[in-house]
User: Fold this.
Amino acid sequence: MTQFYGLFPEDLVLFGKKWAYIEDAKIINTGEPELCPVCGKPVSMLDWLPPHEIMLSTVKLQKLGDFLWGSIFPFLISDKVKQLIAENDIKGIKVHNKPVTIANHDYQQNKVFPKTYYKVKVEWNGANRDDRLSGASYSRDVCPYCRSGSIGEKMTSIVLDELSWNGLDVFEARGIPGLVIVTDRFNDLLAKHKILNYRAVPIQDISYDETQMNLWII
Assistant:
């Protein structure tokens, strides 16, 4: 039976001290979000269009992980992770073919940045949440397909409808906005190759409360 994990920064914060994080995009060009095919509401963030230039909190080599988290959703990945995805036919995550530009002034004078990072897009609707087993509750009616537009939503756990998973290794699930979910196959691959700055938490150990500052509770 496949085990699913929620993917987080290693220290569970987007803007931590141990690892470099994305402070901002130098130029922000946005496209359209993905829309629910039933209600037509957005189910994703606005697409981040080129040029892909970012500022990092630090450029110290020892603080550069293989995942970069911060102000760009969901994250950026290093060339090492990009290669693992390609070589192992990891499905559900599309890697942009051109690397992002690190715009910190330290590396604007013909210096070569020590790591290469890429934008990714994670597929939505890789599975569907089991509302009853997840203990989901809302303060108003929502779309039964995407659950978009909820206010005060809570989940006591995350349980997927077993028959709804479409076989992707990396995905976002209906009813679980803003959380990248991965299979044990992908998680084992990351662990085997000692990938830096991520934490995979079994989804059944994750709860959610929209009324709290830290939405995800682990």
User: Anything to note?
Assistant: The longest strand covers residues 117-122. The CA atoms of residues 5 and 201 lie 5 Å apart. The helical segments are 79-87, 184-192. DSSP finds two helices and 17 strands in the chain.
